[in-house]
């Protein structure tokens, strides 16, 4: 009887230990969330508190915005949105050993009004950067206080945004200027027009020039 009970106890302990081993840490949960949402974690008040927890071993850049239908007149929010998405998309190229220690997140006013009030925000957008509070990142970047990206100094430009953040992320953000398809198309169309014009009028132009 005792041996049977001991076996049951041993199995239970093994299962319990396995569940602890298998359980994901908060950082791993946020990494999975970022991967499943295109690199940007959509927050509410509860997840905002979780991702900015004082014992975090990761850093996070949070776009405080107002993009919902009820705040459609927040033109600066819509102006900055492509830049934030472009930089966060570039971060996906980073190997997971570094990528999973920094996150990009967004908190819309409609999903976190109490957070906006707590931070004293009455306009948008803002980008708040929360550095790691412990772990390897803290050793590499000793600053622990939240800081705000300065749009007045650096503009809404994605290149400036990536450059400023790269001084605080685990590795520099591999952002590159997107290929200018509009300019490429314009050049191609111009060349095509020149070629077609030459084909149609080349002989006449040559004859006119040589006749002089």
Structural commentary:
Helix 4 packs across helix 9. The relative contact order is 0.13. The protein has ten helices and five strands. It has a five-stranded mixed β-sheet, sandwiched between helices. The chain has 212 residues and is of the alpha/beta class.
Give a concise summary.
The protein has 212 residues and is of the alpha/beta class. It contains ten helices and five strands; from the N terminus they run ααβαβααβαβαβααα.
Strand content: 5-15%
Number of helices: 10
- SSE order, one letter for each helix or strand: HHEHEHHEHEHEHHH
- Mass-distribution shape: elongated
Proportion of helical residues: 40-55%
Distance between the termini: 118 Å
Radius of gyration, taken over Cα atoms and rounded to an integer in Å? 27 Å
The spatial strand order of the largest sheet comes to 1-3-2-4-5
Low-confidence stretches: 8-22
Overall pLDDT score: 83
Number of strands: 5
Main sheet attributes: strand count, strand direction, barrel closure: 5 strands, mixed
Structural class designation: alpha/beta
SSE map:
Layout: H1 2-22, H2 26-36, E1 40-42, H3 45-51, E2 59-65, H4 75-91, H5 96-99, E3 102-108, H6 113-119, E4 126-130, H7 136-140, E5 147-148, H8 151-154, H9 158-165, H10 181-211
Parallel strand pairs: 1-3, 2-3
Antiparallel strand pairs: 2-4, 4-5
